[in-house]
Design brief:
Shape: globular
Largest sheet: 7 strands, mixed
Distance between the termini: 50 Å
Order of helices and strands: EHEHHEEEEHEEEEEEEEEHEEEEHHHH
Bound molecules: flavin-adenine dinucleotide
Number of strands: 19
CATH architecture of one domain: 3-Layer(bba) Sandwich
């Protein structure tokens, strides 16, 4: 079997790690990417599947964290969410926070050294043709391709996801958090992700409700106030602020009609980045892809369930609002209540996002019953 993975962002690299490890060793795996097209450069917080996948090329957090500017992530701390509290991973499991720009330099040489069946190829891929018995990428033929080329242009913006803009900036003052921070503010929420040498912040809001100017002045207020005694030290130069506009999206199908071209990463789905659902989902998509290739299991019902769980999981965070009774939170909590009302949440294990029953209990107690722990 011969497989072509296109893209060397976080999703393409994770796919290469999982497929090299999970498929028989006579499977030829090529990773094709264009070094002139930079990865998105966000997505620094992960779930427990990510260090586990890195572990297949011998990543150990104790020995290799400096290679990725990484810190350990034992859960997510929430602030102003009708209280403050923590959603932990199960004892013994952990994710990491890492520098996405260092990932290819760490993963690719190790994949080449460990797997003689793995190759890295450079080149711009304009099309992936899976119409025939085999897939054509450039002048190469494959049995299967996985398209990890990042965001698609056309999106379905009718999904019940509530923010569509992020202003991301770095504070050069490292901190001692071994968790990601999610802080509700009047226009949405802000993440704080601690790396070994900086903290990256992302102020998320809905540009139909909040102007960019309002967002910037609220960022100023939040950093002036500090976070649990931590004062961000950041440059106010415009190039320290990256603005991302996005619409939440999921592919209508995880695979083409011929069953030989799959999608992963932002090409497969993108929802607002509460609790790192994306990287967790990419790992599940890799399992879905391998089961389709090797066992003939229909991938779409499992992909559809994953999408449904991600959307419901994100909406749990909005259902009861937060400490701010503002137009954004009224809008988001109303939409979230309308959605969640239609589902019996007891039927969900949240198996794609949550590693234990205890974590599920903690999510429900925090976000449904407002008993913060
Ligand atoms: C503000 C923000 C914060 C986020 N935070 C998190 C988070 O904390 N945790 C999380 O899990 N997710 C987060 N996400 C989601 C995040 O976007 C993804 O996890 C991550 O960026 C995945 O990217 P990707 O690999 O799909 O695409 P990209 O990073 O865009 O990589 C695309 C790759 O494809 C290659 N490529 C593109 N076009 C071609 C072509 N024509 N030919 C050849 N190669 C090509 C590029 O060279 C690149 O290697 C966040 C998103 C946003 C917007």
């Amino acid at each position: 079997m011969k497989i072509g993975i296109v893209g060397a962002g976080t999703a393409g690299l994770l796919t290469a790690l999982d497929l090299c490890y999970g498929l028989p060793e006579d499977t030829e795996i090529d990773l094709i990417h264009d070094p002139e097209i930079a990865p998105l450069g966000v997505g620094e917080a992960t779930l427990y599947n990510f260090p586990a996948s890195l572990g297949t090329v011998d990543y150990s957090h104790a020995e290799n964290r400096d290679d990725l500017d990484a810190t350990a992530k034992f859960g997510v701390k929430f602030k102003n969410w009708k209280g403050d509290g923590f959603v932990p991973f199960f004892a013994g499991s952990h994710g990491i926070h890492f520098n996405t720009n260092e990932l290819a330099g760490f993963v690719l040489p190790r994949l080449k050294e460990k797997y003689p069946n793995f190759k890295e190829l450079h080149g711009k891929v304009n099309g992936i043709n899976g119409d025939g018995d085999q897939v054509i990428i450039g002048n190469q033929w494959y049995d299967y391709a996985i398209d990890c080329r990042g965001f698609v242009k056309s999106v379905d913006n009718s999904l019940p996801i509530h923010v569509n803009s992020a202003i991301v900036f770095d504070s050069m003052e490292p901190c001692s958090w071994d968790y990601s921070y999610h802080i509700a503010h009047k226009n949405g929420w802000m993440f704080g992700i601690p790396l070994s040498n900086r903290v990256s912040f992302g102020y998320l809001f809905n540009d139909q409700i909040t102007t960019e100017q309002e967002a910037f002045s609220d960022i100023q207020r939040m950093v002036d106030e500090g976070i649990d005694g931590y004062t961000p030290r950041y440059s106010s130069r415009p190039d320290n602020f990256r603005h991302y506009n996005f619409e939440s999206y999921h592919a209508p199908s995880i695979v083409n009609r011929n069953g030989n071209v799959f999608v992963n990463g932002n090409r497969a789905l993108f929802f607002e980045p509460l609790q790192s659902t994306s990287i967790g989902a990419y790992g599940f998509i890799n399992n879905i892809i391998m089961d389709a290739m090797c066992k003939g299991i229909n991938p779409n019902p499992r992909f559809n369930k994953l999408v449904e769980e991600c959307i419901l999981f994100i909406n749990l965070h909005y259902r009861n609002g937060c400490d701010y009774d503002t137009p954004f939170w009224k809008y988001a909590s109303k939409r979230s209540q309308d959605l969640l009302f239609r589902y019996d949440l007891h039927n969900y294990n949240w198996e794609y996002m949550i590693d234990t029953f205890q974590m599920k209990e903690r999510m429900y107690s925090n976000f449904l019953y407002e008993c913060w722990q």
